[in-house]
Target: F-box domain-containing protein
Amino acid sequence: MTPIDFVVPFIGILVFIFWRRIQRRRAERIASNIENQTETLENESIVPIYETNWCDMPAEIKLECIGRMEIRERLSLRCAAKSERSLVDSQKVQISRGTFYRVKLKQGMYSSSTVVSLHFNKQDTFTKHFVSDYEAFELMKHILKIGIFEDLEISFSNSFTNYKESINDVGEISATNIEISGCNKETVFAILRKLKNGVESIMMTFGAYFYEDSLDEILAIPHVQNARYWHLKNLKHSWIPGFEACEVAQVAQMWIDKNSKIGSTFQASLIDVLCQTYRLFNEFVKYFDDRIVFASEKRIRIRTNNPDRHILLERGLDDVMEIYDDLQFYRMMVISAEMKESEYDDDCKTWILKMEPQYYNDDSENSFEQYDYNSSDGSSDFADDWL
Model:
């Protein structure tokens, strides 16, 4: 036998041994991987697996689900189980515009209906008509409690005032812009005091439920003092001599006392039934006699305690708004003391339309965008017994 005859079998034996070692190590790695995966699965099995039943979910999971629900689903859940009501009430919802108002019915046994209308950024709309004031107010309280409003409008007649005490149950009302009309004095004050910090504009209508002392109480509310824009429609009529002028002067005095920021704006409209067109300006000049910088039939400018700031009172006059018209519009602003007369804005139409969009027979939008309150998806028929 040659040496090669001995070498070949020996090499074959070495290859076989090496192959067996490779196989053994591969088996060990597979076994190790299986053991690790088994341990992982055992650890994962500690995490509870919930059934689809809502009752089996913990509160934090329910809150996450509620946060993703639309308003109709939230109201349905709120009706379905009393135990979930507190969870639903604790979750806030962004609302681009919320409107609560009354409309007169042309037919049927009921003379009026209360409407709750909500608009969301996703073009989603919820509208509900109520014949019962109680049901309408209960829904309104819930929406005011959970809503974060860009625009909020509340307009009710005197028949709604029986529930004004319940406004105190709402908590803070979060709104960037708010408009209030048709409410009695107590309800207006309750709403204003419930507003959360951050209100930028307040629009109000001075109705039959307000008296001479109402403005003092309104001006004492911090949200009114800090609002960048505020307007009052339908100030007291001219049979209360000097009262309108006192109101405008009171706002100016409040700005002086609070050192209000440049850009703060107050607008007012009044019906001058006696056509005493110069009386408001004359009374304003008398009130601030020692602060007058400039006075004309259209503008009055006064100094404040801050040398950097003046207050400018303007009257809306143009080709449509004439000096002897019964309806008069006024705008007052905190301006820079450096502002020149050439910088005054003579376009009163723009700011008058902010208060009275139809006055010029114009199609301009109101301070809040005009919406179609009839929901296209049938939501106005939603959940008659939602309470």
